[in-house]
Amino acid sequence: MKKLDKYILGKFLGTFIYAISLISIIIIVFDISEKLDAFIKRHASFHSIVFDYYINFLPYLINQYSPLFTFIAVVFFTSRLAARSEIVSMLSGGISFWRLLVPYMIGAGIIASSSLFLNHIVIPNANKTRIRFEDTYVRDQYYNLSVHIHKQVRPGEFIYVHNFDVTRNLGIKFSLEKLDNQQLTYKLMSETIIWDSVKQDWKLFNYFARKILPDGKEITYAGMEKDTVLGFNASEFREKLTDVEAMNYNELKSYIIQQRLEGSNNVRFEEVEMYKRTAFPFATFILTLIAVALSSRKVRGGTGLHLGIGLLIAFSFILFMQISTTFAEGGMIPPLASVWIPNVIYGVLAFFMIRATPK
Fold first, then answer.
1. pLDDT (0 to 100) of residue 155
2. Total domain count for the chain?
3. Greatest CA span in the chain, whole angstroms?
4. Residues 6+ positions from 108 with CB-CB distance below 8 Å
5. From its phi and psi, is residue 338 left (phi > 0), alpha (psi between -120 and 50) or beta?
6. Which single residue of 105, 226, 230, 328 could bond 338 by disulfide (Cβ 3.0 to 4.6 Å)?
7. pTM of the model
8. Do 133 and 101 have their domain in common?
9. Domain identity same for 8 and 125
Protein backbone atom coordinates (compact mmCIF):
# COMPACT_ATOMS: atom_id res chain seq x y z
CA MET A 1 0.00 0.00 0.00
CA LYS A 2 1.16 3.52 -0.81
CA LYS A 3 1.36 6.24 1.80
CA LEU A 4 -1.77 7.88 0.35
CA ASP A 5 -3.68 4.57 0.61
CA LYS A 6 -2.74 4.29 4.28
CA TYR A 7 -3.78 7.90 4.85
CA ILE A 8 -7.27 7.42 3.32
CA LEU A 9 -7.76 3.99 4.92
CA GLY A 10 -6.74 5.35 8.32
CA LYS A 11 -9.20 8.23 7.98
CA PHE A 12 -11.93 5.80 6.85
CA LEU A 13 -11.55 3.21 9.61
CA GLY A 14 -10.76 5.80 12.30
CA THR A 15 -13.91 7.83 11.55
CA PHE A 16 -16.00 4.64 11.35
CA ILE A 17 -14.76 3.30 14.70
CA TYR A 18 -15.29 6.68 16.36
CA ALA A 19 -18.84 7.03 14.97
CA ILE A 20 -19.94 3.45 15.73
CA SER A 21 -18.46 3.64 19.24
CA LEU A 22 -20.28 6.88 19.96
CA ILE A 23 -23.69 5.61 18.80
CA SER A 24 -23.17 2.30 20.66
CA ILE A 25 -22.54 4.15 23.93
CA ILE A 26 -25.64 6.31 23.41
CA ILE A 27 -27.86 3.29 22.63
CA ILE A 28 -26.53 1.33 25.61
CA VAL A 29 -27.22 4.29 27.93
CA PHE A 30 -30.81 4.52 26.68
CA ASP A 31 -31.19 0.72 26.91
CA ILE A 32 -30.02 0.73 30.54
CA SER A 33 -32.50 3.48 31.44
CA GLU A 34 -35.31 1.54 29.75
CA LYS A 35 -34.55 -1.84 31.36
CA LEU A 36 -33.26 -0.70 34.76
CA ASP A 37 -36.60 -1.31 36.50
CA ALA A 38 -36.74 -4.87 35.13
CA PHE A 39 -33.14 -5.53 36.26
CA ILE A 40 -33.91 -4.32 39.78
CA LYS A 41 -37.30 -6.06 39.99
CA ARG A 42 -35.87 -9.44 38.94
CA HIS A 43 -32.62 -9.07 40.93
CA ALA A 44 -30.16 -9.24 38.02
CA SER A 45 -26.56 -9.12 39.25
CA PHE A 46 -24.10 -6.50 37.99
CA HIS A 47 -21.87 -9.24 36.59
CA SER A 48 -24.77 -10.75 34.59
CA ILE A 49 -25.88 -7.37 33.28
CA VAL A 50 -22.40 -6.47 32.04
CA PHE A 51 -20.96 -9.80 30.90
CA ASP A 52 -24.04 -11.86 29.98
CA TYR A 53 -26.08 -9.07 28.42
CA TYR A 54 -24.17 -5.98 27.28
CA ILE A 55 -20.92 -7.70 26.24
CA ASN A 56 -23.00 -10.02 24.05
CA PHE A 57 -25.31 -7.21 22.93
CA LEU A 58 -22.40 -5.12 21.62
CA PRO A 59 -21.51 -7.29 18.53
CA TYR A 60 -25.18 -7.30 17.50
CA LEU A 61 -25.38 -3.53 17.94
CA ILE A 62 -22.19 -2.80 15.98
CA ASN A 63 -23.19 -5.11 13.14
CA GLN A 64 -26.71 -3.70 12.95
CA TYR A 65 -25.48 -0.17 12.28
CA SER A 66 -22.21 -0.86 10.44
CA PRO A 67 -23.44 -0.15 6.84
CA LEU A 68 -25.13 3.09 7.91
CA PHE A 69 -22.10 4.36 9.82
CA THR A 70 -19.75 3.24 7.08
CA PHE A 71 -21.69 5.56 4.81
CA ILE A 72 -21.68 8.41 7.32
CA ALA A 73 -17.94 7.96 8.00
CA VAL A 74 -17.06 8.06 4.28
CA VAL A 75 -19.26 11.11 3.64
CA PHE A 76 -17.85 12.93 6.65
CA PHE A 77 -14.11 12.51 6.06
CA THR A 78 -14.25 12.59 2.24
CA SER A 79 -16.24 15.84 2.19
CA ARG A 80 -13.63 17.34 4.53
CA LEU A 81 -10.87 16.21 2.15
CA ALA A 82 -12.79 17.82 -0.71
CA ALA A 83 -13.38 21.04 1.27
CA ARG A 84 -9.62 21.34 1.87
CA SER A 85 -9.00 20.65 -1.87
CA GLU A 86 -7.08 17.46 -1.02
CA ILE A 87 -9.12 15.40 -3.52
CA VAL A 88 -8.29 17.93 -6.27
CA SER A 89 -4.60 17.77 -5.32
CA MET A 90 -4.59 13.98 -5.51
CA LEU A 91 -6.21 13.98 -8.95
CA SER A 92 -3.92 16.79 -10.17
CA GLY A 93 -0.92 14.78 -9.01
CA GLY A 94 -1.69 12.08 -11.56
CA ILE A 95 -3.73 9.66 -9.44
CA SER A 96 -6.81 8.43 -11.33
CA PHE A 97 -10.19 8.53 -9.64
CA TRP A 98 -10.48 4.74 -9.98
CA ARG A 99 -7.13 4.29 -8.22
CA LEU A 100 -8.35 6.65 -5.51
CA LEU A 101 -11.22 4.22 -4.85
CA VAL A 102 -8.84 1.36 -3.91
CA PRO A 103 -8.33 2.28 -0.20
CA TYR A 104 -12.06 2.93 0.10
CA MET A 105 -12.81 -0.56 -1.22
CA ILE A 106 -10.17 -2.07 1.10
CA GLY A 107 -11.81 -0.33 4.07
CA ALA A 108 -15.28 -1.46 2.93
CA GLY A 109 -13.90 -5.00 2.49
CA ILE A 110 -12.54 -5.05 6.06
CA ILE A 111 -15.88 -3.88 7.48
CA ALA A 112 -17.97 -6.21 5.25
CA SER A 113 -15.75 -9.23 6.12
CA SER A 114 -16.04 -8.42 9.81
CA SER A 115 -19.82 -8.15 9.42
CA LEU A 116 -20.03 -11.54 7.69
CA PHE A 117 -17.90 -13.09 10.46
CA LEU A 118 -20.10 -11.49 13.13
CA ASN A 119 -23.34 -12.50 11.37
CA HIS A 120 -22.52 -16.16 10.84
CA ILE A 121 -20.29 -17.03 13.79
CA VAL A 122 -19.95 -14.49 16.61
CA ILE A 123 -23.46 -13.05 16.94
CA PRO A 124 -25.42 -16.38 16.97
CA ASN A 125 -23.21 -17.65 19.82
CA ALA A 126 -23.38 -14.33 21.68
CA ASN A 127 -27.14 -14.22 21.23
CA LYS A 128 -27.56 -17.53 23.04
CA THR A 129 -26.33 -15.90 26.25
CA ARG A 130 -28.00 -12.53 25.59
CA ILE A 131 -31.43 -14.03 24.84
CA ARG A 132 -31.20 -16.34 27.86
CA PHE A 133 -30.54 -13.27 30.02
CA GLU A 134 -33.49 -11.38 28.45
CA ASP A 135 -35.79 -14.38 29.02
CA THR A 136 -34.77 -14.46 32.68
CA TYR A 137 -34.68 -10.78 33.58
CA VAL A 138 -36.48 -8.74 30.92
CA ARG A 139 -39.39 -10.42 29.17
CA ASP A 140 -41.69 -13.42 29.21
CA GLN A 141 -39.90 -16.41 27.74
CA TYR A 142 -42.52 -17.78 25.40
CA TYR A 143 -45.55 -16.58 23.53
CA ASN A 144 -47.65 -17.49 20.52
CA LEU A 145 -49.10 -14.72 18.40
CA SER A 146 -50.18 -17.01 15.55
CA VAL A 147 -53.70 -17.94 14.58
CA HIS A 148 -54.67 -20.69 12.17
CA ILE A 149 -51.70 -22.86 13.18
CA HIS A 150 -50.98 -25.74 10.79
CA LYS A 151 -48.36 -28.37 11.58
CA GLN A 152 -47.25 -31.75 10.30
CA VAL A 153 -46.41 -33.63 13.50
CA ARG A 154 -45.25 -36.79 11.70
CA PRO A 155 -45.39 -38.09 8.10
CA GLY A 156 -49.02 -38.21 6.97
CA GLU A 157 -50.34 -36.70 10.23
CA PHE A 158 -51.45 -33.05 10.29
CA ILE A 159 -52.96 -30.86 12.99
CA TYR A 160 -54.74 -27.51 12.96
CA VAL A 161 -55.41 -25.16 15.89
CA HIS A 162 -57.22 -21.85 15.51
CA ASN A 163 -55.10 -20.35 18.29
CA PHE A 164 -53.09 -21.62 21.26
CA ASP A 165 -52.55 -19.93 24.65
CA VAL A 166 -49.09 -20.99 25.91
CA THR A 167 -49.70 -19.55 29.38
CA ARG A 168 -52.60 -21.98 29.97
CA ASN A 169 -51.56 -24.69 27.48
CA LEU A 170 -54.98 -24.39 25.90
CA GLY A 171 -55.96 -24.63 22.24
CA ILE A 172 -59.20 -23.59 20.55
CA LYS A 173 -60.83 -25.37 17.57
CA PHE A 174 -58.45 -28.28 17.16
CA SER A 175 -58.41 -30.91 14.43
CA LEU A 176 -56.13 -33.82 13.56
CA GLU A 177 -56.06 -35.61 10.21
CA LYS A 178 -54.26 -38.83 9.22
CA LEU A 179 -53.64 -39.57 5.56
CA ASP A 180 -52.51 -42.77 3.84
CA ASN A 181 -51.48 -42.40 0.18
CA GLN A 182 -53.19 -39.00 0.09
CA GLN A 183 -56.43 -40.56 1.33
CA LEU A 184 -58.04 -39.46 4.59
CA THR A 185 -58.23 -42.36 7.05
CA TYR A 186 -58.94 -40.59 10.36
CA LYS A 187 -60.12 -37.17 11.54
CA LEU A 188 -60.48 -35.89 15.08
CA MET A 189 -62.05 -32.52 15.97
CA SER A 190 -62.39 -30.84 19.35
CA GLU A 191 -63.64 -27.46 20.50
CA THR A 192 -60.91 -27.22 23.17
CA ILE A 193 -57.70 -29.10 24.02
CA ILE A 194 -55.68 -28.72 27.24
CA TRP A 195 -52.22 -30.14 27.90
CA ASP A 196 -51.93 -32.04 31.21
CA SER A 197 -48.29 -31.62 32.26
CA VAL A 198 -48.65 -34.19 35.06
CA LYS A 199 -50.10 -37.02 32.95
CA GLN A 200 -48.23 -35.83 29.84
CA ASP A 201 -51.31 -36.17 27.66
CA TRP A 202 -54.11 -34.07 26.17
CA LYS A 203 -57.63 -33.52 27.46
CA LEU A 204 -60.23 -33.04 24.73
CA PHE A 205 -63.55 -31.28 25.29
CA ASN A 206 -66.60 -31.60 23.04
CA TYR A 207 -64.85 -33.83 20.54
CA PHE A 208 -65.90 -35.72 17.42
CA ALA A 209 -63.89 -38.48 15.68
CA ARG A 210 -64.31 -40.10 12.30
CA LYS A 211 -62.45 -43.23 11.15
CA ILE A 212 -62.57 -44.35 7.51
CA LEU A 213 -62.05 -48.08 6.93
CA PRO A 214 -60.32 -49.55 3.82
CA ASP A 215 -63.69 -50.69 2.44
CA GLY A 216 -64.99 -47.11 2.57
CA LYS A 217 -67.21 -47.54 5.62
CA GLU A 218 -66.98 -44.96 8.41
CA ILE A 219 -67.00 -45.23 12.18
CA THR A 220 -67.89 -42.08 14.09
CA TYR A 221 -68.00 -41.34 17.78
CA ALA A 222 -68.27 -38.22 19.94
CA GLY A 223 -68.09 -37.18 23.57
CA MET A 224 -67.81 -34.31 26.01
CA GLU A 225 -64.42 -35.12 27.52
CA LYS A 226 -61.53 -37.46 26.81
CA ASP A 227 -57.88 -38.01 27.78
CA THR A 228 -55.63 -39.08 24.92
CA VAL A 229 -52.05 -39.12 23.64
CA LEU A 230 -51.66 -37.28 20.33
CA GLY A 231 -47.95 -37.63 19.56
CA PHE A 232 -46.97 -34.00 20.33
CA ASN A 233 -46.91 -31.76 23.39
CA ALA A 234 -47.60 -28.13 24.31
CA SER A 235 -43.99 -27.03 23.90
CA GLU A 236 -44.33 -27.39 20.12
CA PHE A 237 -46.71 -24.42 20.09
CA ARG A 238 -44.29 -22.15 21.91
CA GLU A 239 -42.68 -19.65 19.59
CA LYS A 240 -39.68 -17.41 20.13
CA LEU A 241 -38.91 -15.24 17.14
CA THR A 242 -35.54 -14.51 18.74
CA ASP A 243 -34.57 -18.21 18.54
CA VAL A 244 -33.39 -17.77 14.96
CA GLU A 245 -31.00 -15.03 16.10
CA ALA A 246 -29.16 -17.63 18.19
CA MET A 247 -28.69 -20.10 15.29
CA ASN A 248 -25.66 -20.23 13.04
CA TYR A 249 -26.09 -20.79 9.29
CA ASN A 250 -26.25 -24.60 9.40
CA GLU A 251 -28.59 -24.66 12.40
CA LEU A 252 -30.89 -22.10 10.79
CA LYS A 253 -30.93 -24.00 7.48
CA SER A 254 -31.90 -27.26 9.23
CA TYR A 255 -34.54 -25.44 11.27
CA ILE A 256 -36.09 -23.96 8.11
CA ILE A 257 -36.33 -27.44 6.55
CA GLN A 258 -38.06 -28.70 9.69
CA GLN A 259 -40.46 -25.74 9.75
CA ARG A 260 -41.35 -26.32 6.09
CA LEU A 261 -42.28 -29.92 6.88
CA GLU A 262 -44.49 -28.71 9.72
CA GLY A 263 -46.13 -26.08 7.52
CA SER A 264 -45.10 -23.23 9.82
CA ASN A 265 -46.26 -19.69 9.02
CA ASN A 266 -42.87 -18.26 10.06
CA VAL A 267 -40.72 -19.96 7.40
CA ARG A 268 -40.50 -16.83 5.24
CA PHE A 269 -39.36 -14.77 8.24
CA GLU A 270 -36.60 -17.30 8.96
CA GLU A 271 -35.51 -17.44 5.31
CA VAL A 272 -35.26 -13.64 5.20
CA GLU A 273 -33.11 -13.76 8.34
CA MET A 274 -30.79 -16.38 6.78
CA TYR A 275 -30.32 -14.54 3.46
CA LYS A 276 -30.01 -11.11 5.10
CA ARG A 277 -26.94 -12.25 7.03
CA THR A 278 -25.02 -12.42 3.75
CA ALA A 279 -26.73 -9.70 1.72
CA PHE A 280 -26.59 -6.94 4.34
CA PRO A 281 -22.74 -6.82 4.65
CA PHE A 282 -22.44 -6.39 0.87
CA ALA A 283 -24.40 -3.15 1.21
CA THR A 284 -21.18 -1.75 2.75
CA PHE A 285 -19.48 -1.68 -0.67
CA ILE A 286 -22.48 -0.06 -2.37
CA LEU A 287 -22.96 2.62 0.27
CA THR A 288 -19.21 3.36 0.25
CA LEU A 289 -19.27 3.98 -3.51
CA ILE A 290 -22.34 6.22 -3.24
CA ALA A 291 -20.72 8.14 -0.37
CA VAL A 292 -17.49 8.72 -2.34
CA ALA A 293 -19.40 9.83 -5.45
CA LEU A 294 -21.51 12.18 -3.38
CA SER A 295 -18.83 13.81 -1.21
CA SER A 296 -15.65 13.87 -3.35
CA ARG A 297 -16.54 17.13 -5.09
CA LYS A 298 -16.19 20.51 -3.43
CA VAL A 299 -19.54 22.29 -3.19
CA ARG A 300 -20.97 25.29 -1.40
CA GLY A 301 -22.38 24.05 1.89
CA GLY A 302 -19.46 21.70 2.47
CA THR A 303 -19.68 18.79 4.91
CA GLY A 304 -23.13 19.73 6.20
CA LEU A 305 -24.75 19.53 2.77
CA HIS A 306 -22.98 16.26 1.93
CA LEU A 307 -23.94 14.76 5.29
CA GLY A 308 -27.58 15.79 4.92
CA ILE A 309 -27.95 14.32 1.43
CA GLY A 310 -25.97 11.26 2.50
CA LEU A 311 -28.23 10.55 5.45
CA LEU A 312 -31.27 10.86 3.18
CA ILE A 313 -29.83 8.27 0.76
CA ALA A 314 -28.71 5.92 3.56
CA PHE A 315 -32.06 5.98 5.33
CA SER A 316 -33.88 5.48 2.02
CA PHE A 317 -31.77 2.34 1.48
CA ILE A 318 -32.64 1.02 4.96
CA LEU A 319 -36.32 1.84 4.39
CA PHE A 320 -36.23 0.08 1.01
CA MET A 321 -34.67 -3.00 2.65
CA GLN A 322 -37.34 -3.00 5.36
CA ILE A 323 -40.20 -2.70 2.86
CA SER A 324 -38.72 -5.39 0.63
CA THR A 325 -38.31 -7.89 3.48
CA THR A 326 -41.81 -7.12 4.74
CA PHE A 327 -43.18 -8.04 1.30
CA ALA A 328 -41.19 -11.29 1.48
CA GLU A 329 -42.55 -12.15 4.93
CA GLY A 330 -46.03 -11.53 3.53
CA GLY A 331 -45.39 -13.97 0.69
CA MET A 332 -45.49 -11.39 -2.12
CA ILE A 333 -41.87 -11.85 -3.29
CA PRO A 334 -39.30 -14.64 -2.71
CA PRO A 335 -37.16 -14.13 0.44
CA LEU A 336 -33.85 -14.43 -1.47
CA ALA A 337 -34.91 -11.76 -3.96
CA SER A 338 -36.21 -9.46 -1.23
CA VAL A 339 -32.84 -9.03 0.50
CA TRP A 340 -30.85 -8.59 -2.73
CA ILE A 341 -33.23 -6.26 -4.64
CA PRO A 342 -32.16 -3.16 -2.61
CA ASN A 343 -28.48 -4.05 -3.18
CA VAL A 344 -29.04 -4.41 -6.93
CA ILE A 345 -31.03 -1.16 -7.28
CA TYR A 346 -28.64 0.92 -5.16
CA GLY A 347 -25.68 -0.82 -6.83
CA VAL A 348 -26.91 0.49 -10.20
CA LEU A 349 -27.37 3.93 -8.61
CA ALA A 350 -23.79 3.78 -7.27
CA PHE A 351 -22.46 2.87 -10.72
CA PHE A 352 -24.10 5.85 -12.40
CA MET A 353 -23.12 8.22 -9.60
CA ILE A 354 -19.47 7.14 -9.85
CA ARG A 355 -19.53 7.56 -13.63
CA ALA A 356 -20.98 11.08 -13.30
CA THR A 357 -18.41 12.17 -10.70
CA PRO A 358 -15.83 14.70 -12.01
CA LYS A 359 -12.50 12.94 -12.37
1. 79
2. 2
3. 92
4. 70, 284, 285, 288
5. alpha
6. 328
7. 0.72
8. yes
9. yes
